[in-house]
Amino acid sequence: AAAGAAFPNPVRSGQNLQWNGSPNANWVAFDLNGKQVASGNENCWTVPASMPAGSYLISRDGQTEQLVIQR
Asked: 15-55: per-residue pLDDT in tens?
């Protein structure tokens, strides 16, 4: 995984997604239609159990990566 990459990836809904790197970098998650579905400024995100399974994009520290959420 790249420095600062989200892990685990894929992640299950209800699970914690975490990053290395800057501790308080803003992050934003989008669906593949470009709709913002979540954001924050911490080193982890508890993926809501209600989050639909599928592919998302997550941007943090100027880098964007694909995130896969599984049920």
From this structure: 999 988 777 889 999 999 999 999 999 889 999 999 999 99
| For residue 3, pLDDT beyond 80 | no
Contact 58, 6 (CB under 8 A): yes
Q: Which of 63, 66, 60, 65 is nearest to 24 (CA)?
A: 60
Which pLDDT belongs to residue 25? 85
The candidate with the shortest Cα–Cα distance to 53, out of 7, 2, 6, 11, is: 11
Looking at residue 52, what DSSP letter applies? Answer: P
**Do 58 and 67 meet the contact criterion of CB atoms below 8 Å apart?**
yes
Helical spans, DSSP H, in 1-71:
none
Question: How far apart are alpha carbons 25 and 55 in whole angstroms?
Answer: 22
